[in-house]
Model the fold of this input.
Amino acid sequence: MSKKYRKVLVTGADGFIGSHLTEALVRRGYEVKAFVLYNSFNSWGWLDNCADDVKGHFEVFAGDVRDPHGVQQALHNCDAVFHLAALIAIPYSYHSPDTYVDTNIRGTLNVVQAARELELQRVVQTSTSEVYGTAVYVPIDENHPLQPQSPYSATKIGADALAMSFHNSFGTPVTIARPFNTYGPRQSARAVIPTIITQIANGMNEIMLGDTTPTRDFNYVEDTCRGLIDLAECDAAVGEAVNIGSSTEISIADTFSLIAEIMGSTATCVSDKQRIRPENSEVFRLCCNNDRIAELTGFKSQVEIRSGLEQTIDWITRPENLKRYKAELYNV
Done:
C-alpha cells in the first residue's frame, strides 16, 4: 500500500485512540515511532496488548510531551507527527486544571516547535468536538463558534490555536483534526459507553449515569483512525481544521437502551449526582457535519453504531478485559 511519509511519530500511542492509530499506520506500511508516557514499569499502555500482526513492527520512545528536549529527540528523523497525547477527562479538569494547561497546551507547543525546527512535512494536531460546546446549530461544521465549557475544552481550544499560529507565522504544515465522540475497544471507563457496558456486565440492575438527555455523535475508533490518516495524507488539509464524525446523533438515554438490548439486560439507569456536570459546563448536543473531510479525502464513517457497539461489548466483556475495569466506582 502506498504511503506519503517514510516515518511518523504518534504521541499518546499508549492510549485508546493512539494505540489503534499505531496499529493502523503499521498496517499501511509506515515506519512508526510510538511516543508513550515514561513510567518505571516500562509499560507501553495498550501497546503492551497490541495485535499480533503489529507486535514488534514499531519503535517505542518513552518520554513526556511536557519536556521539550524529549519531544525534539522523539521527532528526530521523523517526517510527520500525529499529536494525540493529552489529558482528556472533563471532570478531572475541574479540580486539576493546571495539569491540563501543562500537558495539552505546553505539550502542543513542544510538538509544533520541534516540528518547525526539524522541518517536518506534517503535524496533525488532534482536537475534540468538545471545543464547540453545546451546539448553536446542527450539524456542527468547522465554522461553529468555539465555546470553552470546561477547563479541558479551554486547553484544547488553546492548543489548536497555538498549533495553527505556527502554520500562520512560520508555515509549519499543521492540520487540526477534530474527532467527535470516539468509542471502541480499549476505551477507559471515564467514557459513557464503557461505563454502561461494564456495569451491565458486572450484573448491576441499576446503572449509574449522569445526565442522559445530551446527544452525542459516536464514531467507531477504526473510522476515527482512518480519518486521521486520510487528513495526514491530504495536502489540501494543511492549514485547515477538519471534523471527523459519523454525522449521526443519539442521546445518552438511547445509547443506554441500545447497549442494554444488545446485552440482553433489563437494567434501568439511575442518575448519580456526582456524575452530573455543572449546568453551564454540560455539552447538551453534538452532531458532526462531515462535508469538509468528505470533500478533501472522500472520508465517510463505515461502522454503524450497532455494529460498533457489538464489537465494543464483545471486547470489554472478555474476562481478561473486564477485570481491568472497576465498574462499581465512578471513574473521573
The two ends are 41 Å apart (CA to CA). The mean pLDDT is 97. The first strand starts at residue 7 and ends at 11. The CA atoms of residues 243 and 290 lie 6 Å apart.
